[in-house]
Amino acid sequence: MRFDTIWLDARLATLASGRSGLGVVERGAIAAVNGRIAFAGPMAELPTDWDAANRIALDGRWVTPGLIDCHTHLVYAGDRAHEFELRLAGASYEEIARAGGGIVSTVKATRAASEDDLVRASLPRLDRLLAEGVTTVEIKSGYGLDLASETRMLRTARRLARERDVDVVASFLGAHALPPEANGDKERYIDQVCAMIPAIARDKLADAVDAFCEGIAFSPEQTARVLVAAVAAGLPVKLHADQLSNLHGAKLAAEHLALSADHLEYSDEESVAAMARRGTVAVLLPGAFYVLREKQLPPVEALRRHRVPIAIATDSNPGTSPITSLLMVLNMAATLFRLTVDEAIAGVTREAAQALGRLDRVGTLESGKWCDLAIWDIERPAELVYRIGFNPLHARVRRGQ
Length: 401
Hints:
Strand content: 15-25%
Oligomer: single chain
Shape: globular
Structural class: alpha/beta
Order of helices and strands: EEEEEEHHHHEHEHEHEHEHEHHEHHHEHE
């Protein structure tokens, strides 16, 4: 058996199904052919006739799948530091939004930015994630709120994948907020969002469609119209659900076979059970919970009880989660939401891949998948979750390189 590259004397956290916990392999090896994993397992099980063009000794370092940030808003212009000051003075997220701040303030800056401007602004944020071992990142639109600006954001997301060695999954989030020119007419704006979807699907600008189902955004009925239009256009769906109140958004997501329902602080048992039945992944976003100083915890015990996969992500955005460290979010998920080490690491690998509909190609160390690796200078996986402000990445590998 001839490999392009083989990494020897490694400790693997394979995250493979059928293995307990992280799927640990001591004294392991992982090999790549044509960018895909050809072997991942104990060195003792390597074929006797193997050879490789490149042999790399890892001296006992840990290897995980490349990390996956499955919910971000990386593409935008401007910042909202002033709103942070307002929240410190006691203003709520809803109060800021209703006064013309929040998402709408970012819309104004983003609409004024060219595609080149957006690429320049977004690359440093993306680079921070890549420096921590991220090999796949989801990027949403949602700060344009008209066809020209939304498509410019999605084109920017596609360009970022060409500018850097990373897989970008783009999501159309036109139903993120009501633009100022809509004059409060949510129904008419949802008509416009639904009309945007076929063109976006035709031009392959998005891999999925998302929406914000919340009192300050769109009702379940309005959200359902967007999801139906997305499915009709052949695009899978995701949903911002139950972040600030229980509108049964998670249940709505499940009813439309959504890949994921995200946030979920106010989701109830009925919604969690619906997610379990339909295979919808829970994406928890502790960064937004932390920044907004929320008190309502997502229903982690119910998610465990119903065996709903739990992913975690940065929710990197200018207002409610200005975070560009997925390792920091690992610690937040454990500290704030009481996820275990195994759950946290699975949440940024295997479960994050499933939340993007990409588990067939990334997220675990298994033969046939892309050879996306994060190699760590750590003694045990718990260090990835335990440490704060520490990046022990030794090497990042994408598609075997």
